[in-house]
Design goal:
The protein has about 80 residues and is an all-alpha fold. The protein has one domain (about 10-85). About 50% of the residues lie in helices and about 0% in strands. It has helices spanning about 10-25, 30-40, 55-60, 75-85. The longest helix has 13 residues, at about 10-25. The radius of gyration is 14 Å and the shape is globular. The relative contact order is 0.11.
Length: about 80
């Protein structure tokens, strides 16, 4: 059974991801589902172990940055809104 979620991404990343999904004849929703299945498969111990780094580089505007320290909800919210300016 499918369920809906709302995610927020940078507009440029969304456009590149949609283009990538279209070139591979898959919807953006199914692409994200595929990536999330890989992440949650418990085969990988860290983010660096994930085999999606090539895709991340394709749709990103720079090198991947993994933030692994715990941040408060307030810190994440401030960071998100700061990046939107």
């Amino acid at each position: 059974m499918d369920a809906k979620i709302t995610l927020s991404f940078d507009k440029a990343v969304i456009l590149k991801a949609k283009e990538f999904a279209g070139q591979n004849n898959i919807s953006l929703s199914r692409l994200m589902e595929l990536l999330l299945r890989k992440v949650t498969s418990k085969k990988y111990k860290t983010l660096e172990d994930l085999p999606i780094s090539d895709w991340v580089h394709i749709v990103s505007e720079g090198p991947a940055e993994y933030i692994t320290r715990k941040r408060s909800r307030k810190e994440m919210k401030e960071e998100f809104f700061k990046s939107r300016k």
